[in-house]
Target: Adult-specific rigid cuticular protein 15.5-like
Amino acid sequence: MYKKLAIPAYYHLISTILSSALAVSVFENEISTFPPPPKPYAFGYAAGRYPGHIDRTHSEVSDGSGVIQGSYSYVDPKFQIHKVDYIADENGFHPILNRNIPTLPRDTPAVAAAKEKHLLQYSIIADAHQRLPQRAFAPVESNAVQYAKNKHFELFEKIAQEHAKIAAEREALKRSNEEKYDR
Model:
């Protein structure tokens, strides 16, 4: 039923399992796990506070051995672009401020006029949507809605009359019972 393994085959099986599947090594009665294989990665993004207006970027690359190279940039409140290149390794984080940012190109007269026209139209639309309407408009009722309302009011009146009748009958019954017991 069970097959007995010879001792050398048994040790070979155990050593194969321990060395390959578990990645464990034994040094002077100390068990340690081998480090995982390198996991290189790369990413980058560009973002802004408004659609179509990028005001910050970041990109980074790692070779998996612990050395990371990257850069990020942003626009400060004075609309100056700042860019920082960096390297991070076992000795720490090493930023390099790039002060030689090229100036942005100036708009041509046609582009400047188009921007001005766009901003003017945008502000007109924004102002129009910020104002409160002078009059409130009530919805117009259709014939079907008017018919349903009239039917509802008729039924409401009928039920109110029935309730008034029931209340009067109860009051009369209450008085008659009081008169019986008062005698």
About this structure: The chain is about 40% helix and 25% strand. The radius of gyration is 42 Å.
